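Why does this matter for the project? Reviewers at the last site visit asked to see concrete outputs rather than summary tables. In response, this paragraph embeds two records directly. Each consists of the residue sequence and, immediately after it, the corresponding structure tokens. Nothing has been edited or filtered.
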Amino acid sequence: MSVLVYTESEEGKFKKTALEVASYAKTVADQMGTTVTAIAFNANDTNVLGNHGVEKVLQVNNSSLDKFNANAYANVIAQAAKQEGAKVVVISSSADSKYLAPLLAIDLDAGYASNVVEAPSSTSPFTVKRTAFTNKAFNNTTIDTDVKLVGVSKNAFGVHESSASASVEEFSANVPEMGVQVESVDKVTGKVTIADAEIVVSGGRGLKGPENWGMIEELADVLGAATACSKPVSDLGWRPHSEHVGQTGKPVASNLYIAVGISGAIQHLAGINASKTKVVINTDPEAPFFKAADYGIVGDAFEVVPKLIEKLKEFKAQQ
């Protein structure tokens, strides 16, 4: 009857989202008077999960699952949930988890609530708070199926330490035949990714050309942030499409989002509304982004950003 949590990892290392969903699962387990069991695929340091409330780890060691496959992962997680008798299964709201969620819900005959931002207000009936209308509103959703599947929004619940001693058991699942094979994965290395970033610095057409992107990257480097861009910028080929954020690009739920030279089209705002604090730098005081921003600077980015970088460096030097 434990709460089962799927903890995402990459190249054997747990992602930040894995620790966040483990923290969430621990809170749910405490409400229900039970424990947390995690399932991990080819992960190395499973002990870290114990620091976030996990008491048992089902370790899947199978080289055919090194690369994510939604059908296979959903099938294996469902097997674990049935073995453990889990009535609540917790996953993240990452792109991979959103892909496997409907498949897992079907396998478990479970009701699925996505974009959950808080611990359940009630476990009987099981009721959670979710974002709606591209993060413009909230709703309270009750899941009345026997098994509940919960997708936790990034950076919504946070990572919380809750010391426990996690035992590790090898889980020998029946891995289904995979119809789609991943041959290779290309990814940026050595930089903070948009998916994991707590701070994102994003640039738009106001930067006038790709040759001016150095200051965006320098600001991001000072802040330990990921770099991003608006759709027109990626369409023009100034930046790779992997950096395009917005409703038609990657959604962003960072703690701090800095928009430089971005007017704030509705599609862009829809994709970044979940960010907690939004800062805008733009020469146009009538830019739509200012209506959505927590802080705004009306000014030339080529003057404001270098001064901001200078002040941030001075502040960090004093720490």
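We now turn to the second protein, recorded in exactly the same manner.
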Amino acid sequence: MTTEELRALFRDMQDKGLRPMLCDTEVPLYDAEVPCGEPAQCTGDFMESVLMPKELLSIKPEFMVTVKGESMKDVGIATGDVVKVVGIDYPFDGDIVLACIEGEYTLKTYYEDEEGRTWLVPQNESYKPVLLDGSKRVKLCGKVKEIVKKAPRVPSRLCAKAVRMAMRAMEPVYEVSEARVGYAMREIAPQITVARLWYAVFRVMVDCNVLGKDDFDGFIDRLRKEVPNHEHLPARVEIQRMAVQSFAKPVKLWTMDNAPVKGQRFITYEKIARQTKELLLSK
């Protein structure tokens, strides 16, 4: 992106009431995992700098560390998150702090009770608060100023499922009577010269919600009832083997370059499918 494009983007966002900020200031990121569970050694070295907007930084020293563990999950801090820590002189109740206990580091919430005792409190009932009673060396290294969430990757199967549901909702709802189904089968039968061509009829009936996409046996049983003397009644395997590549999709999505048949045979399947749909839906 060029400078001019960036400026145009900022102007557009500002016009829409947003407040864009440029990441132009380096903040150290330490290659260390700070546990949100029991205190543990935090011995990571400086790894790299990350760029942050200058407007979000304070005058006190700041650094960033990676989190692991689930003891702060109730406030939205989870394994893989990066927290920005800023130095403090003294914490207040409710501050999430990076504490060093006997040389080991942990993230907890700072709290003073009614009797003036100080605690480090996890935000997960599975973990117990830590009383700071002077029996251990404790240093509060800073408080969490910001949580940088690691962007999750959404599995493609979840996207595909959502898209399929949306597409189904957009599809027209067909109401086809049993009498019309029988009529369509009888009318199209003379054009079926090989058993596998019945697949075009089957697929249209699936598209029109007459059959389920795997109801091969129901389709064949209906054929035997409507056209019992037809010369090319199919076996299940002859219909099922055609439900591959683009033929496994609605007829409107069939493509010759990705179909189990090519050339004139593909054209014949399309023609039979089109005529079957007209027979099913004509008044």
